[in-house]
UniProtKB/TrEMBL annotation:
<protein>
    <submittedName>
        <fullName>CoA-transferase</fullName>
    </submittedName>
</protein>
<dbReference type="Pfam" id="PF01144">
    <property type="entry name" value="CoA_trans"/>
</dbReference>
<dbReference type="InterPro" id="IPR004165">
    <property type="entry name" value="CoA_trans_fam_I"/>
</dbReference>
<keyword id="KW-0808">Transferase</keyword>
<dbReference type="GO" id="GO:0008410">
    <property type="term" value="F:CoA-transferase activity"/>
</dbReference>
<comment type="similarity">
    <text>Belongs to the 3-oxoacid CoA-transferase subunit B family.</text>
</comment>
<dbReference type="InterPro" id="IPR037171">
    <property type="entry name" value="NagB/RpiA_transferase-like"/>
</dbReference>
Length: 234
């Protein structure tokens, strides 16, 4: 939750679009602590506070204006992610005859080419972190670069968070880099669970742990029913 919350640090007044229980807890925690300007939505047509209280109206046309204007930061899931940040949520196997049909491309291309998109992966494994995705849904750095300035102008993947660590793309070729490992996780374990060669700094820190105040907010205010535990193995 802390690593997901940190994805919105310093974003200012943008719309947070978390997809999943853990990212949702993270966005609300950020709003209640270090990111009071963050906008939250009920997923339909309203802006809401961390407690669900209505704060404003957000019809679909206004939501799209935020998307195309880059005033939204999404945290999506990924069935596959590769070393340049290409994301797949559509199918596994060849597109013409996939072995498994998933959600479909949905809004992933528009998201990644118009506003910041981070990713949350609750099960870090070589099946998710692959050398090359079977189908590009969310656009990665290599494909954006190949398409030219029209694709790279607003393209940004700030962060990838998994149950093992935090990653970014701040490398010369914009490939994935290990930023931190969660407490109790080793760098070797992350390498073994990743299907491509990560950039790993000489000194990899641990991900920040929650403060007592943040723990209280998570457990008593934001998610007292523990929905977050359904996404992450403990």
């Amino acid at each position: 939750m802390i690593a997901c919350a940190e994805a919105w640090r310093g974003n200012g007044e943008v719309l947070a679009s978390p997809m999943g229980a853990v990212p949702s807890v993270g966005a609300r925690l950020a709003r209640l602590t270090f990111a009071p300007e963050l906008l939250l939505t009920d997923g339909e047509a309203l802006l809401v506070g961390p407690d669900g209280e209505v704060e404003g109206w957000l019809p679909y046309r206004r939501h799209l204006a935020l998307v195309t204007g880059g005033r939204r930061h999404v945290m999506m899931g990924a069935s596959q992610l590769d070393r340049f940040g290409n994301q797949n949520i559509s199918c596994i196997g060849e597109w013409e005859q996939p072995a498994r049909q998933l959600l479909g491309v949905r809004g992933a291309p528009v998201n990644t080419l118009n506003n910041p998109v981070s990713y949350w992966v609750p099960r870090h494994s070589p099946r998710v972190f692959v050398e090359r995705v079977d189908m590009v849904c969310g656009v990665g750095h290599d494909n954006a670069r190949a398409a030219g300035p029209s694709a790279t102008r607003f393209h940004r993947i700030p962060q990838v968070v998994s149950d093992l660590g935090v990653f970014d793309f701040r490398t010369p070729d914009r490939s994935m880099r290990l930023v931190s490992v969660h407490p109790g996780v080793t760098v070797d374990r992350v390498r073994e669970a990743t299907g491509f060669a990560l950039t790993v700094p000489a000194d990899v820190p641990y991900t920040r742990t929650p403060t007592p105040a943040e723990l209280r907010l998570i457990r008593e205010v934001i998610d007292p029913s523990g929905t977050r535990d359904r996404e992450v193995r403990v």
